[in-house]
């Protein structure tokens, strides 16, 4: 049985479906990895199978940026421990400083060289592994931004999708694209890494990090691609039919109580606007999932909405489209105090490239996982 036939059978099975969605966040992906380790252990304990991996448990894995790196590894059947090893032992190599001249001209350049990142991704995923490879055990979504068309590109290995049809598209099928290069494109954060060029058919496109699209949190986009007729997967909706588990890397809103209007010049906007847009989009995607889904668990959205659990109001559909679990936290002094993380400073985990703080990121992730990941979150979806 070829890879696409096996995947088609899995995607068409009548059993309730599970989606795992992984946010972007640079090296803060180490935090998400520890949450994923706790989820993996829950499934192993429930099924009494110490070799179970998340690709056995989730039918669809979606990731943006660092979430795409983690998600692709999990989708290929790696244990969470193997993904953790990759980050802890190769994180510094992936963030290799660019040449001094490039850094000096950072207005037009980037901070890090992407050569070692590309080599490490090829080592993990295989240079010849394509999006349609039989090494990929689940449905996989990778979110990128196409700079030449100025549009989000959510690419999947869905064998039913229009642009994955090898009969119709031939060599132009997205399934022929190198997996490592798609992941690298999704993680090409502006000012951190150079853009990634990809040849699709006779056209060359330039891609940058999916975090600048509305889908840095890809959970709701994954739901749309799993259920909308246009994507030809057409999974059934319902709180007992579909579970979305969304894992964040920490919400870092820029709180500046002493900001003066005179400080808000062109360079200020250039530096802060991407973060503003990313945080707002991530918040909206999470909120949409809680409104249209039945939220089983998640931190509060804000002081007015709280966590959006229970009955939400007459304007909301009484029939929830899916069940939803969100694991994330605020990177702030107040949140750290409430989480019992007073031994750590928020500044230790804010930066996307804080490779020297990976031990702290790991400890924070383990603490959050121990407090938040519970078996009842997956009831009915084991």
UniProtKB/TrEMBL annotation:
Residues annotated as transmembrane: none
Keywords, comma-separated and alphabetical: Hydrolase, Lipid degradation, Lipid metabolism
Alphabetized Pfam families for the sequence: Patatin (PF01734)
Gene Ontology molecular functions: monoacylglycerol lipase activity; phospholipase activity
Presence of keyword Hydrolase: yes
Motif GXGXXG positions after renumbering to this chain: 24-29
InterPro entries per record: Acyl_Trfase/lysoPLipase (IPR016035), PNPLA_dom (IPR002641)
Motif (GXSXG): 63-67
Residue intervals of the PNPLA domain: 20-223
Active site: 65 (nucleophile), 209 (proton acceptor)
Biological-process GO terms, alphabetical: lipid catabolic process
Keyword Lipid metabolism: yes
Family in the record: Belongs to the patatin family.
Protein name in the entry: Patatin
Protein species of origin: Thiothrix nivea (strain ATCC 35100 / DSM 5205 / JP2)
Record lineage: Bacteria, Pseudomonadati, Pseudomonadota, Gammaproteobacteria, Thiotrichales
């Amino acid at each position: 049985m070829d890879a696409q036939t096996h995947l088609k059978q899995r995607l068409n099975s009548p059993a309730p479906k599970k989606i795992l969605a992984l946010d972007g966040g640079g090296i803060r992906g180490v935090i998400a990895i520890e949450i994923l380790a706790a989820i993996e252990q829950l499934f192993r304990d429930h099924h009494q199978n110490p070799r179970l991996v998340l690709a056995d448990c989730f039918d669809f894995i979606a990731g943006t940026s660092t979430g795409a790196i983690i998600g692709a590894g999990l989708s290929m059947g790696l244990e969470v421990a193997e993904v953790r090893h990759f980050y802890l032992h190769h994180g510094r190599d992936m963030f290799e400083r660019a040449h001094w001249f490039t850094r000096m001209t950072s207005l037009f350049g980037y901070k890090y060289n992407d050569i070692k990142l590309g080599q490490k991704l090829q080592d993990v995923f295989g240079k010849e592994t394509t999006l349609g490879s039989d090494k990929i055990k689940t449905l996989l979504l990778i979110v990128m931004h196409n700079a030449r068309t100025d549009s989000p590109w959510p690419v999947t290995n869905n064998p039913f999708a229009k642009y994955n049809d090898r009969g119709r598209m031939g060599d132009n099928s997205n399934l022929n694209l190198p997996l490592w290069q798609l992941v690298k494109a999704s993680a090409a954060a502006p000012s951190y890494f150079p853009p990634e060029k990809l040849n699709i058919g006779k056209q060359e496109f330039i891609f940058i990090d999916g975090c600048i699209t509305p889908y840095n949190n890809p959970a709701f986009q994954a739901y749309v691609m799993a259920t909308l007729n246009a994507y030809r997967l057409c999974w059934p909706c319902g709180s007992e039919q579909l579970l979305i588990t969304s894992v964040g890397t920490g919400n870092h809103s820029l709180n500046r109580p002493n900001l003066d209007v005179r400080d808000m010049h062109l360079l200020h906007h250039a530096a802060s606007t991407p973060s503003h847009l990313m945080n707002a989009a991530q918040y909206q995607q999470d909120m949409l999932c809680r409104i249209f889904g039945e939220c089983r668990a998640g931190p509060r959205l804000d002081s007015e909405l709280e966590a959006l659990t229970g009955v939400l109001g007459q304007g909301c559909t009484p029939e929830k489209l899916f069940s939803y679990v969100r694991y994330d936290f605020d990177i702030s002094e107040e949140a750290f105090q409430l989480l019992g993380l007073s031994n750590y400073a928020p500044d230790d985990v804010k930066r996307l490239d804080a490779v020297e703080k990976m031990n702290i990121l790991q400890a924070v992730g383990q603490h959050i996982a121990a407090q938040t990941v519970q078996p009842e979150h997956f009831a009915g979806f084991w």
